[in-house]
Amino acid sequence: MSEKLRVGILGATGMVGQRYITLLADHPWFEVVLVAASPRSAGKTYEQAVAGRWKLEDPVPDAVKDLVVLDVNQVSEIAAQVDFVFSAVSMSKDEIKKIEEEYAKAEIPVVSNNSAHRWTPDVPMIVPEINPDHSDVIKYQQERLGTSRGFIAVKPNCSIQSYAPALSAWKKFEPTQVIATTYQAISGAGKNFDDAPEILNNVIPYIGGEEEKSEREPMKIWGKVDPQKKEIVPAASPVITSQCLRVPVLYGHTAAVFVNFEEQPSKEELIQALESYSGVPQELKLPSAPKQFIQYLTEDDRPQVRYDVNFEHGMGISIGRLRPDKIFDWKFVGLSHNTARGAAGGAILCAELLKAQGYITTK
């Protein structure tokens, strides 16, 4: 019998769910034993449910083709068969909040790709290299939910991965003000070029809710767990303002960023801080952790999606074009893979961290 943790994928037929399926195909710790989706997919095999809807270059893994899709609303039936779940359900925020709490109350850890619980004060929003200690808030969440094993943890918005890691590496220089403009791939909307004809030869200067997420979510990541309040208190600085655009790229979110610092670091100090930055995932050698979290590229025309989006299997961050600015102190360009580090891969790394910390266990 396999000693791997038994995993269920909620929302398994969507694009992020499909990415979970492919990334977990040969995972050393986790095994997908259950897939769930909307009632219209329930009762079909996974292969049947994604027929004509499979959006990834890799084929459907053989191990999941014949799994029968369950209705995601069958909480007790699903909870009986898994050790934990990844959530990528496509519902309204209120519906997502409700169903993720139902799973947690059924004593199932939930690692979510969704935004619904990102601002629930006692739900950790984790980038494992940046704020692994935020898992300390889980005990307060369990106290609120009345659970001993179940809880919810979330990963942050995909686009902030292209600049928040750099700012985290520069924390000692005290960044105070940030302008971040993101150029976001269509897969971030769950689409490819076949079902997004509106993006061809076009740039769309609006992505609903994205700018608020880009400005607020890093503040929670940089915040602190307050034992008195039993929640995460967001950081007060730096102040971030952003604009978010959809561009005709399949994978990869690019950010053009301007930053002011309280201290006055040199370019050499900033680059050294990027290249040496690592965290608990690297120390523990977690299965999905990149060996090098952030790379700095010296060429004038890098990072580029074409060459750099798959750095460290899409789990690393690429930074380039760091140079002084006439108004701000410095400016740079960042790039991250939005469905690997930014979505399913980031959540899998989060689950690996939570397992290593003892929060996700076998039943």
From TrEMBL:
<dbReference type="Pfam" id="PF02774">
    <property type="entry name" value="Semialdhyde_dhC"/>
</dbReference>
<dbReference type="GO" id="GO:0046983">
    <property type="term" value="F:protein dimerization activity"/>
</dbReference>
<dbReference type="InterPro" id="IPR000534">
    <property type="entry name" value="Semialdehyde_DH_NAD-bd"/>
</dbReference>
<protein>
    <submittedName>
        <fullName>Aspartate-semialdehyde dehydrogenase</fullName>
    </submittedName>
</protein>
<feature type="active site" description="Acyl-thioester intermediate">
    <location>
        <position position="158"/>
    </location>
</feature>
<keyword id="KW-0521">NADP</keyword>
<dbReference type="GO" id="GO:0009088">
    <property type="term" value="P:threonine biosynthetic process"/>
</dbReference>
<keyword id="KW-0560">Oxidoreductase</keyword>
<dbReference type="GO" id="GO:0004073">
    <property type="term" value="F:aspartate-semialdehyde dehydrogenase activity"/>
</dbReference>
<dbReference type="GO" id="GO:0050661">
    <property type="term" value="F:NADP binding"/>
</dbReference>
<comment type="similarity">
    <text>Belongs to the aspartate-semialdehyde dehydrogenase family.</text>
</comment>
<dbReference type="InterPro" id="IPR012280">
    <property type="entry name" value="Semialdhyde_DH_dimer_dom"/>
</dbReference>
<dbReference type="Pfam" id="PF01118">
    <property type="entry name" value="Semialdhyde_dh"/>
</dbReference>
<dbReference type="InterPro" id="IPR005676">
    <property type="entry name" value="Asp_semi-ald_DH_pep-lack"/>
</dbReference>
<feature type="active site" description="Proton acceptor">
    <location>
        <position position="253"/>
    </location>
</feature>
<dbReference type="GO" id="GO:0009086">
    <property type="term" value="P:methionine biosynthetic process"/>
</dbReference>
<dbReference type="GO" id="GO:0051287">
    <property type="term" value="F:NAD binding"/>
</dbReference>
<feature type="domain" description="Semialdehyde dehydrogenase NAD-binding">
    <location>
        <begin position="6"/>
        <end position="138"/>
    </location>
</feature>
<dbReference type="InterPro" id="IPR036291">
    <property type="entry name" value="NAD(P)-bd_dom_sf"/>
</dbReference>
<dbReference type="InterPro" id="IPR051823">
    <property type="entry name" value="ASADH-related"/>
</dbReference>
